[in-house]
Known about the structure:
With 300 residues, this protein is of the alpha/beta class.
Amino acid sequence: MTGRRYLTLLLLLLSYAPLLLADSQLRQKNWVEDMQQRSSSEDQITLNASSGDKEEKFFALFRPEELGRPSGAVIMLHDIEGHPDWPESFHQLRTELPRYGWSTLALTLPPLDRSPGSKINYQPLLESGTIRLEAAKAYLLEKKIYNVVILGHGLGATVATYYLQNHFDDLFHGVIVLGMDGNFSAEGFDAASALTAIRIPIFDLYGSDDLFSVMSSSKRRRTMAVKTDGNTRTHTQSSDYAFDYSDDIAKKITYRQFMFPATDHNFSQMEQPLLQRVVGWLRRYAPGSEIRVDENTLTR
């Protein structure tokens, strides 16, 4: 291809960039409208996120616990090009965890600008994810829920680790990453390295037929999670206690990684086993209970 033809093609692709972003925004708008029709109106909420002069209103789905013995809440972050009620495993976790005492709050993340001919800029998404998580935190605090776990799928897991590496908050008691790309690196942020800085228990789940970026980085995620941060080792794994295992020891294992067999990035056909794994991990690492303080009922 000659230089002139290459330049013409590049300019043509760039001319379509605003249309592609607009297409992503339109697709997300259509998804939100579809969810508003399909999901229970009682689940639907609008949250306000703000930071400085930046303000965003975004759609979310909140479902309160149904057990009668509240344990806390799980904030859920969908994958790229997804939405808060994404089919299969994400939907099942959102709707079934309340039966086990966990309220769920699934957020909408903004579409990613994938302009052709230029490097993808992830920073707006990471920053927007941060202020949306802050808005979610404020919403749960209003409901007097003080025991919270963040669950992120794919790029949603990246947003979760980006947020948690710099937010050490007593509200958060664990993070669950589904199909996380441990080789993700952009704008000075390295997702796997962030695992070293996160001070709360981590549950790292992926499928045997997951995306190549997820499969190939499983060892790196595990290595970085248990790496020594300065003079302190942030996390321990099961192999550290191979010859001295008990229920009490199990609670000290703050990084766990598990690969589901015969399933893909969306955990297809593994919705129920995934739910049971998540519920079991929550019971062990983030058990919450309802307490009364003065006239208020708190979950922590």
